[in-house]
């Protein structure tokens, strides 16, 4: 082993440890690892920046815009509600939901699909007295099934495609992955409507839990007529830094102020709504001039009226809020919304709201003004789970243009009229020229942090390839799997990729495994396409944890799920996908 190989492996292992321990955002960790390789001289500037001109990464960027145009057109809003049917047969409705969702996610980013349809499905379940936990995990899994069907189904497929093109391979065709993923997805849907349905918990959603527990964390106080607090600001009155309670709303003459600023002056008759640990209510009882309502029967509905509204938000993997307390993040002043409660692992966290350290997957109940949702609907910090009453595009002609453009792009790439990248460029140009989407609108949908992660991960993959680290790892890999032959090597590559996907990110997992797998295929003298397909399926087929894939994370809190629910249902699905993938890949590309 040379020094360069040892150094690259050391940096990659350090990066993996940091990703697993979530010491910072994934894109920042991967960018730092790339910077170390650049500054150490392992990579030249040209090689380090190669990922930023990678065709796969640029195609992902363009498809964010295309998917954004489809999302804002409103053409998808009624699809799922209609497909669910009456709900008389829950399993039938589940099947009717999963099939169209899988079809949609084959061509659109699955994250917005899950965000869009989670409140729709939850509302449908509530109207029929069905537990949303029976439908939300299948919603997430259906998008994963569909994402592996086509070249553009996930960013991971395009990243691997871009790597293949750089190495002189043909790359994936539009439906090549469906040779494996279609039978696997079909079996996955059958599993979910039979065995999986029985294993799915019958549990209350976060929405129900927040509502039923309201009296356990909401309290109210009124500023008395001759109170010494009259004329004082919130800060001066000592209401900003209470030990266990958090001021979320001030009601004055029927007008509501959410995210109450510290400089707001109090008047007689002001009603103050607090959230937090009710055992610390003595803190406000001891403040002279405040009349505390004991035994209050406040409900969540009482908090919203006119300008104030309640919104649920799920903290994302990419969020700057992760590992910070709500107070440290200055949530109230920055976002213009107060955190009423936090739901994690099927229960509300019974601590002072401001002191709760947030994690990816936490569901926040926010009290905000009406302009909060349009301002933060595309934030990278959280996913807002609320039905859009009106789509941004109201012109039906533009909705038709958005759909037609998507279909044309797919056809051009499918029949090799244009490469996928050029077809995406053409689609985006058409959307801009027809004003179906604007430049500012496009910016909202491009996930720059995802693109940064992909570009930097490609640079690290280049370091593995150029230094010989990938070949060194492949040598030892082949020695370990020598007795199992090629099929054993494919199985282990699948297993390693799926483990990486569960604990880091799917794109990073794919980029790390591709150069290693190419070296393995070269040494075994087999078609490397077998390994590329295996990695593409394994990197996306993430079912066993809520944190391995964004779609799972979005439904985690709203569905009232526990971590163990994903293990119980996801592990059998992972094994099913692995068996189907290994067998078909071996038969099609090796035998």
TrEMBL record:
UniProt-listed InterPro entries: Cit_transptr-like_dom, DASS-Related_Transporters, Na/sul_symport_CS, RCK_C, RCK_C_sf
Q: What PROSITE patterns does the annotation carry?
A: NA_SULFATE, RCK_C
Question: Which UniProt keywords are present, listed alphabetically?
Answer: Membrane, Repeat, Transmembrane, Transmembrane helix, Transport
RCK C-terminal domain location: 205-290, 298-382
Q: Does the keyword Repeat apply?
A: yes
State the compartments where it is located: Membrane
* Keyword Zinc annotated: no
Q: Which residues cross the membrane?
A: 6-23, 28-46, 58-80, 101-121, 141-165, 177-197, 400-433, 445-464, 476-496, 508-526, 532-557, 569-589
Annotated membrane topology is:
Multi-pass membrane protein
Q: Which domain of life is it from?
A: Bacteria
What is the name attached to this protein's record? Answer: SLC13 family permease
Native source species: Alkalihalobacterium chitinilyticum
Give the organism's phylogenetic lineage.
Answer: Bacteria, Bacillati, Bacillota, Bacilli, Bacillales
